[in-house]
């Protein structure tokens, strides 16, 4: 996983958490729901990057690189 991807995913996750806190504090259910989407998206992207890294590592081991 590239450093840029890691930073982007973490930023999206933190933004979602901030929205959750703001939505909870103000009682804004739409904002709270939006935050869950941001956090889920960031987690999915992070998981996909980990799968790509694992596949790359397996390929390297099989090819001797």
Automatic annotation (TrEMBL):
- Give start and end of each CsbD-like domain: 5-56
Judging by the UniProt lineage, the source's domain of life is Bacteria
Pfam families, per database record: CsbD (PF05532)
Biased composition of type Basic and acidic residues is found at 7-20, 27-38, 46-65
Q: Where is this region: Disordered?
A: 1-65
Its family remark reads: Belongs to the UPF0337 (CsbD) family.
Protein's name in the database = CsbD family protein
């Amino acid at each position: 996983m590239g450093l840029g991807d890691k930073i982007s995913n973490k930023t999206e996750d933190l933004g979602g958490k901030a929205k959750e806190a703001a939505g909870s504090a103000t009682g804004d259910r739409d904002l709270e729901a939006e935050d869950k989407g941001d956090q889920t998206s960031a987690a999915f992207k992070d998981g996909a990057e980990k799968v790509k890294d694992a596949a790359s590592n397996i390929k390297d081991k099989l090819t001797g690189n």
